[in-house]
């Protein structure tokens, strides 16, 4: 699957990196698979992760959401999201880990536009069998370990991702607006920049400068595409990371504040309290107890 490495200097949670010699990892898993056992501890990936539940049920926390997924469920989680398996309940299935460079532009664009959080899909019997066939085919190609076979893997992977997106859109009744390609491109570039720089850049004009557009154009475009203002998206990224660190680590609030780019811890506490409705310490106490209760069940 992927290999575990030490935390990056700017990361406070274990980061599992993809093995860059392959870029695509696929196989079958059960409760005793080493990768599943490692996933019993909170961690995040630097790549996309997809799992198909074949039997039993899988209980997982994605960031702060506790989900129980029965057989016939498919999920795709984005890089950077913290997750932890709580219980496998006799579950078995398929795993598929991949870097974005291994899917075509159409699949990547669709995935990037949709996937801010985990994509969770309840499959029909027909859809389930289709994904099983694709994943079995990719496994067989990797077993052959042939350079020609590797050229076939990527189209199959792209097809699987695009089909997953279609299933997700149908199940959630997503209606696509008539947006220009330029607007979508600006919004995507902005979101990617925010994910990379939210610790150091907190103001929309700083991102507008990087994109070589006016801050007004950035704000109008992002609002039209995402429904949120540029400032709201920056704050959302900061808050999500703060909540992850409070939920999954024991580092001090002062250290979290510094990690997120706030030298004034009191200001960070006021900002967090305003957005979350709890102080950081209250949030940690409340949700840590909730996680402990879930794990004890």
From TrEMBL:
Coiled-coil intervals, chain numbering: none
Domain HTH araC/xylS-type span(s) in chain numbering: 188-286
Single GO molecular function: sequence-specific DNA binding
A matching Pfam family: AraC_binding
This protein's UniProt keywords: DNA-binding, Transcription, Transcription regulation
Record's protein name: AraC-type DNA-binding protein
């Amino acid at each position: 699957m992927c290999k575990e490495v030490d935390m990056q200097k700017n990361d406070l949670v274990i980061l599992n990196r993809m093995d860059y010699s392959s870029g695509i990892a696929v196989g079958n898993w059960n409760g005793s698979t080493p990768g599943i056992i490692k996933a019993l501890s909170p961690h995040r990936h630097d790549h996309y992760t997809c799992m198909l539940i074949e039997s039993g049920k899988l209980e997982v926390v994605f960031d702060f959401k506790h989900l129980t997924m029965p057989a016939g469920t498919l999920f795709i989680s984005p890089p950077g999201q913290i997750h932890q398996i709580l219980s496998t309940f006799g579950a078995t299935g398929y795993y598929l880990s991949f870097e974005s460079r291994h899917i075509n532009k159409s699949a990547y664009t669709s995935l990037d536009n949709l996937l801010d959080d985990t994509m969770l899909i309840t499959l029909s019997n027909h859809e389930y069998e289709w994904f099983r066939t694709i994943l079995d085919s990719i496994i067989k190609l990797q077993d052959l370990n042939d350079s020609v076979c590797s050229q076939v893997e990527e189209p199959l992977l792209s097809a699987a991702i695009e089909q997953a997106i279609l299933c997700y859109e149908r199940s959630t009744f997503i209606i696509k607006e008539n947006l220009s390609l330029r607007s979508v491109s600006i919004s995507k570039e902005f979101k990617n920049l925010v994910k990379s720089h939210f610790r150091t850049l907190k103001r929309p004009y700083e991102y507008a400068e990087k994109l070589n557009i006016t801050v007004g154009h950035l704000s109008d475009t992002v609002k039209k595409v995402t429904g949120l203002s540029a400032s709201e998206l920056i704050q959302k990224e900061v808050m999500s990371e703060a909540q992850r660190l409070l939920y999954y680590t024991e580092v001090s609030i002062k250290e979290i504040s510094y990690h997120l780019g706030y030298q004034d811890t009191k200001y960070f506490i006021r900002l967090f309290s305003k957005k979350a409705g709890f102080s950081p310490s209250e949030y940690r106490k409340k949700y840590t107890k909730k996680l402990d209760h879930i794990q004890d069940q």
